[in-house]
Amino acid sequence: MTVEAFAPAKINLTLHVTGQREDGYHLLDSLVVFADIGDRLTLERAEDLSLSVSGPRAGGVPVDGRNLVLKAAALFGPGPGAAIRLDKRLPAAAGIGGGSSDAAAALRGLAALWGRDLPGPEAVLSLGADVPVCLAPGPVRMRGVGEEILPAPALPDFGLMLVNPGVEVPTPAVFKGLVRKDNAPMPDLPNWTSAAVLAEWLAGQRNDLEPPARAEAPVIGEVLAAIAASPGCLLARMSGSGATCFGIYPDRAAAEHAAILLRESRPGWWVEAGAPYTL
Ligand SMILES: C[C@](O)(CO)[C@H](O)COP(=O)(O)OP(=O)(O)OC[C@H]1O[C@@H](n2ccc(N)nc2=O)[C@H](O)[C@@H]1O
Ligand SMILES: Nc1ncnc2c1ncn2[C@@H]1O[C@H](COP(=O)(O)OP(=O)(O)OP(=O)(O)O)[C@@H](O)[C@H]1O
């Protein structure tokens, strides 16, 4: 038996930091979507548990017990084995939850392969604050430190471009650089009737991690300017703790056109176009 699991990129369309818990973790209010751009896992029954990593972004990704895929597998406790192949396409330490989405895809895939229930919510959260939201990819409002997943209104169709300048930005350093931790949450979410209406609403919201991330990696400013200047762009913003930034376009074709032009002018950057993804 072979199971395939897709690990889509997570995008924080907004990321408001609204407080801090006593253990140091920050309280968030974030509108999260996923893109049809991501890593692919293939899982097969086997005597032992093993992981191999290949693909264009495999370089530097751990293949041992530090990999979140193996940490996810460990949550099931002792049991049958599995040979897991990870085709790595998303850049790591990039603010688009690559490792978290891999972990969530491994949980879904192993539960299907082994006919087991998913581990409980606390165990899932122990893998990382972004793992709960990655378990059932689709548009949601995420609160708490990442464990509160609330429904979001249906989104209009739109296109997405993701751009990473090749600089890894460690998440803890960005949270440490925050000047204010008690920022305003999002208001109630309206019904967005078109990509343009959504982009206009988003423009009034924020990613509070952008200033400290830009202090860590000033190239983020260049990325945002390049996206904003691309044809058809309705909004440019950073995702998560960076350095990946996204552009919103009226449709996928417009995002693909912008991506072709940006790849030409910035051959060293990772540039992908797509559309929202729901499992
Ligand atoms: C910034 C986001 O990407 C937004 O979706 C996530 O909150 C980060 O999720 P993640 O990378 O899965 O986070 P974790 O691996 O749990 O934590 C990495 C580090 O980020 C900081 N962290 C993370 C999440 C959170 N709500 N508050 C935090 O302060 C902590 O310093 C933590 O040590
Ligand atoms: N499957 C994996 N893919 C990528 N990195 C992994 C994986 N498992 C563990 N890691 C480690 O996790 C680190 C963070 O990478 P990851 O892609 O999870 O990050 P992220 O950008 O912090 O996500 P976000 O901030 O959006 O939650 C990497 O530097 C790498 O050493």
What count of structural domains? 2
Largest sheet: 7 strands, mixed
CATH architecture of the largest domain: 2-Layer Sandwich
Number of strands: 11
Cα separation of the termini: 21 Å
The CATH topology of the largest domain is Ribosomal Protein S5, domain 2
Q: Which ligands appear in the coordinates? A: 4-diphosphocytidyl-2-C-methyl-D-erythritol, adenosine-5'-triphosphate
Low-confidence stretches: none
The helix-and-strand class reads alpha+beta
Rounded mean pLDDT score: 97
- Estimated helix fraction: 25-40%
Element string (H = helix, E = strand): EEEEHEHHHEEEHHHHEEHE
Query: Given the C-alpha coordinates, what overall shape results?
Result: globular
Write structural notes for this entry:
By secondary structure, the protein is α+β, with helices and mostly antiparallel strands. Helices cover 29% and strands 28% of the residues. It has helices spanning 68-74, 98-114, 121-126, 131-135, 171-176, 195-203, 210-216, 219-228, 252-265; strands spanning 2-12, 16-20, 26-46, 49-54, 81-87, 140-144, 148-151, 159-164, 235-238, 245-249, 270-274. Strands 1, 2, 3, 4, 5, 6 and 7 form a seven-stranded mixed beta sheet that branches. A four-stranded antiparallel beta sheet has the order 9-10-8-11, sandwiched between helices. The longest helix has 17 residues, at 98-114. The mean pLDDT is 97. The chain binds 4-diphosphocytidyl-2-C-methyl-D-erythritol and adenosine-5'-triphosphate. Residues 61-62, 66-69, 92-100, 102, 130, 171, 240-241 line the site of adenosine-5'-triphosphate.
